[in-house]
Every structure is written in C-alpha cells, then in structure tokens.
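Follow-up to my post from last week.
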Amino acid sequence: MFGFRDTALVYLSYVVAGLLVTAVSFALFALNLRARTALREKRWRRLSDRWRAPVLLALTEPSTMDAVHDVIPPRDRLHFVRFVLEYAQRVRGNEREILGRLAKPYLAPLGERVWSRHSEVRTRAVRTLGMLGLPDHTDEVVGALDDPSPLVAMIAAKSLARKEHAEHAADILLYLKRFEGWSRNFMASMLASIGPDAAPALRASLASETEVIWVRAVSAEALRMLRDPYAADTAAQVVEIEEDRELLASALRLLSEVGRPTHVTVVRVRCASPDFVIRSHALTALGIVGGEEDIPRIEEALGDESPWVAIHAARALKAAGREDILEELADAKGPRALLARQVLSEEVLR
Amino acid sequence: MSEVVWTVIMGFNYLVLVYFVVLNTVYLGTSLFAFGALKRYAMRMKSLDLDDLVTAAGAPPITLVAPAFNEEATCVESVRSLLTLDYPEFEIVVVNDGSSDATLQRMVEAFNLEAAPRLPMASLPTAPVREVYRSRRHRNLWVVDKVNGGKADALNAGINLCRTPLFCAMDADSLLEPEALTRIVRPFLEDSRTIAAGGILRIVNGCEVKEGQVVRVRMPGNVWARFQVLEYLRAFLSGRMGWHALDATLVISGAFGIFRRSTVVDAGGYATDTVGEDMEMVVRLHRHCAERGIPYRIHFVPDPVAWTECPESLRTLGRQRDRWQRGLLQSLMRHRKMLFRRRYGRAGMLAFPYFFFLEMLGPVIEFIGYVVFVISLAAGRLDGPIVVAFLMVAVVMGIALSVSAVALEELSFRRYPRVQDLLQLFVLAVAENLGYRQLSTWWRFRGVVSALRGRTGWGRMDRKGFGAAK
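User reply:
Got it. Predicted complex:
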C-alpha cells in the first residue's frame, strides 16, 4: 500500500516538475513573443514611414511612380507589397490600378506561393494577386478556384467577381457548387458585384434544369440585385413549374423586382401556397405585378396566421399604392391596426 | 474519531488529489487545443480582409437585443457605442425591463425617443410590453418598455420584435468594439449550418473609454478586477477556444452572442425560470437540433470583443459567482438527458460530462477537499509528501494554466500593450492560486447549495459606469 503511494507521489512530483517547466516555458514564450512583435512592429513602422509619402505622391501624380521603386531594398519587396495591399483594399478604379502597377515588379514570388502546402499562405497569395496582380496573374487566380481549400477558392472567386473581369462570371458559376455551405446571400452579392455583364450567365444558370437547385436560387438572387429585366420571364417559368422552396422564394423575389403584369397568373397561384415563406414573397410580387383585382386577395392576407405573411401583404398594399386601406385599418383597433401603422411609418420597404 | 472515519477522510484526500489532477489535465488539454486553434485563427485572419469579405457583400442584417434593468449609469454610453458599430445593416432594440431607476428617462432624453408602432414577429410569452419607442435621431434605435420579468423575459420581448435573420443577445452595460459584428458574423457567412456564435468578453475596468469606445487598454487598479482579467482570459482563450476547437461549444456568454432568430424561436426562446439563461439556451439549441436531425454548428469566435464592467467588491463578485454556479447547475440538471448520449455528438459526450462533473460538482469536491485537508493536517494525519503533493497539484497546476492563458493572449491578440501589464498578469497567475481561487471555490460551493435550496434571484449588481470603473 505504502509502496504504491510513494511510487505515485514520485510520479506526481515528476508531473508537477514538468508543469513548472511548462509554466516557465509559457512565460518565456510570451515574453519572447512580445519582444519579437515589438521589433517587427518597429521595423514595419519605419518602412511604412519611408514608403507612405512616395506612394501617396504616385497616387496623385503617376509620373513619380519610378521614384517609389528607388526606396525599396530587395529584402523588403514583399513587405512593400503588403504595404500597397493595405492601401489597395481601401480604394477602387484608377487608384487601385496605380497601386497594382507599383506592386507589379514584386509579385512573381507570390505566384509560387499559390502552390504552398499551407492554406493560409495560399489564401494570402491569392488575395494579393487578385487585388494587385490582375490581369497578369489571372491564370493563378482562376486556377485557385480549384484549390482544395474552399476558403482559398472563395478568395479567388471574390477577386474575380469584379466589373473589370466580367468574363470570369461563367468560371465562378461553374465552381459555385464548391461553396454550398456558404451564405447564399453572400454568394449572390458577390456575383452581382460583377455587374450587368454577368447577367447572361446568371440567366442561363437560373433557366438550367440540370443546374444544382441552390445555384439557380443564388443566380436568381444575383439577378434581383442587378434588377435584370430580361430575367423576368425565366423567373416566371421557375415560379410556375418548380417546387423547391429556396428556388421558388428567390424567383418570386426576382419577380417583385422586375416582374410585369403578364406574370401575374403564376404569382397568384403561389399566394395560396401552404408555405408561409412562399406566400409572403408571392404577395410582395403580387403588389408589384398585380392589378386592382388582386387587392382583395392581398387585403385578406393581412389577417394571415403568420405575421410575416401579414407584413408582406401590408407592404404589398403600400407598393400597390393602396395606402388608403392601411390608413383605414390604422384608425381601427387590434393587431391589424398596429401592422398598418407600422408599415405606413416605414421609410424603406424591406 | 475512529480509525474507520479517518480512513474515509484520508480516502477523500486522495480523491481530491485525483480530482485536481483530472481537472487540471482537462484544462491543459483544452489549452493545447486552443493553442493550435488560435494560431490557425490568427494566421487565417492575417490572410483575409474581413471588411471586404463581410461588409461589401451580403452581410445579413442583425438586431441587437440589449435588456436593461436599472442601468441608468451606463445605458446611454452603451447605446452610443452600439450606434457606432461598423456594420452595413443593424437595428438596436433596448428592452427596459421595468427598471426602477431613470434608465428609460435617460434614454428618452439622450436619443429623443417617441412612441412608434412595431408588430411582434414572434409570440414568445413575456411580461406585458407597455410601449415601444423609436429614436427620432437614430432611426435604427428602438426601446421597448415592459413590465419587469427578468433578463430572459426581456430577451424574449426583444426577439418577438426582431425581424432580421440574426439577433445579437447582449447586456446593455457592455461595449462592443466597432468591428465586433463584422467579425462575429463570419461563421454565418462561411457555414450556413451556423445557428449561434459567441464572442469574447474583456474587462473594461481600468481602460480609458471615450464616447462609448475603449481607446486605451489598461489593467484595472482594483485587485479583484485584476484577478478577473486573468480569469476571463483563461475562460475564453483557453476554455471556450479549446472547446470550440473540439466542436463542442456549450456556453455562449449572455453579454455577447449572436443567434439565428428562427432557430431560437422554434426552440421556444429563452427560459425564464433559470438564472443561467445564456448557457441554458445554448444547451437547449444543441438538444433542439440534435433531436430533430437539423444540421447545425455553434461557434466561438475569439476576436469580436465586448467590454464589460466587472465587480470590484468581494460582496458583489461573490453574488455574481453564486449566480453563475446556480445557472450552470440549473442548465445542466434540466438537460441531464444529454449526459454521455451519443445522439448529442461531442456536446453530449465531451462538453456536457466536463461541465457536469468538473464545473458543476467540482467546487463541492474542491471546497470539502480544502476543509478535510485542513482537518487532516491539524490532526497530524498527513505526512510531508502528501501535503506537498496536495499543494503542488492545487497550486502549481493552476499557475501553469493561468500562465498558458496569458501566453495564448500574447500569441493571438495582445490587447495589453504595456510590458508591465504582461508582467502583472504573470504575477497574478501565481497570486490567484494563493487565496483568490479558494475564495472563488467557496462562492461556487455556496452557489451549488443555494441552487439546491431553490434560490432563484439574481442578486444586486453595483455598476459604477465606464468613466468610473478604474
């Protein structure tokens, strides 16, 4: 018994000694890290101070660009790229192009880092090349759409989703399936940032029955953000024949933005959907594409069991120019009065 | 005392020794997981431009729900801080939960509030709402005045009025950093299964606050607040980050967490019959999704910061810890079905047993352990090696853990810029094991006892306000 206890205590003392060493190592690690970070930050401040003035001058007077390269020693080239990247994130258009030209001579090593074993290194390289290295490094960035890490692929897609690179819209759509876990709204917004030139590819994606359903829904959302009038017929067709909730809701939202009175029949059918999400969006669309004969149907929906449907109906009445109905309700009592008063007081329709 | 009793007492001493070893080994394990996860996270954040990723594209609108009860000292500054948040689209719903002080008047005057119609979008039961106000100056600021019903009830009232897909549950006396929402929303963008994400809480005492923002981070002057700085670092960077790395997050702080509204409403909203409504909600979300086969993820994100004022008096601190322990016990006992059940995944197989045996029952074992140890020592029943082993395991392991938490802070965020603050944290890491930890054990033990007695109150919390919290 005592032999066992003594042995256990000996082992325990080893553990405690090990922990003491661990604690001291942690402390030394932290202090060392603090010292190294302080040195690194000091160096970075010194470099930034040296580069700030010539870079800002080059942004206002591009003829001085060559002078910038004189203050970049070979060992600090990648630091300079990082410095330029921080500026490039905050500017657009011509200024970003100038920053890209300033960084251009130093970007080649990043082309190799796109193949690094570490996904963080690849992410950084793709982001830098996407921001500063297009179109010279287009191959690397497009290639990164196929990267094993979805994050790297997303950074590549985000880099390519710009108005000046609209030709890559189809590439991005092709690889969109990889991002199934990502927020749909995020992806739609990314695609819409390409601008109207992306619309044909998006319309094709929405219309394609062989395309993945959620990709079609994302395409519909992007078309809604672009307010693409040519997508209305496709959206109406989707509303007529498809049954997937996500796709239907997106197509109805698209019709709310670009639909025409000719689409009213398919929208009316969906106003009776048992799914409150579909009913809500159908009513909003009906407020846009419907006529006077649809007002009773919308008014009836003010009493829907779902508050979401009711609020969409009230907003639909407002969009249809029938605020008089809401005003009448607002003067009465009960929950519908509160609903009417709320919608009448809203500045922006959500 | 008979020899049989002494045998039992000595056996208990050994049990406590084993408890300390197991507890600290688990802590060290989570610290190691946290170390790897934080390192990866820091590298990942360096390689991303969050603004570009979030604000430029499809960031979901968020409603901030901030319950306020007798917060006249801090509510205006807190709301001002919320209004400066750097996020594309958000609403603020402050719920005045029947305050008996001038919280509502302060808000009405400061933000020029007027009564405004707003339809509830959910029907979670709550105490009656007296009036809903909207700011004439800041159109995204709403204040709900309701009859007192407790924090959970106030949160439910805010959720009822929420019309965005996500809501942020927070305390009205917390200060969110401007980019906090941008950072905490990231998991919702990257993984559509995400139903909740929690941020980190840091202690504002001692920091310089201007116009609702922390402009200079400093260690507090008050010694109890200093210990809490270290505790928070350990709890969030070692604990929650470690459990997140294991995909078993069981707690999101009530002071700063973001949730998918529809899931919370489907799960029935916050429970109003517990003082640990934040933990209970997360545990219930695990159950709700697991039992219905809904794919879900719950995240901890280590860099979105909410600054909060911590108690500076022992009495208030003791009440807070007592309440936390009661909340923990109530949540775990209510959902004890999850214990070691594979159906609930890692939450049921790893995190729940840890919280159940080590966090809930731990203080009882530890407190009785200290008492029994002293009795045994006084009776001369303990020999030198055992005494040394007990102290070493209780103290040295604690020191190692706290120092590792400071190292994790240094590895990742370095919020305390002065070297003297870093050194102070190391000194605290040693000092807290020589009295403060035992005091904390006593408070938690008291919490277990009061929970078993059925005590339900929150206890009074004294606030000084951000300008005064030094």
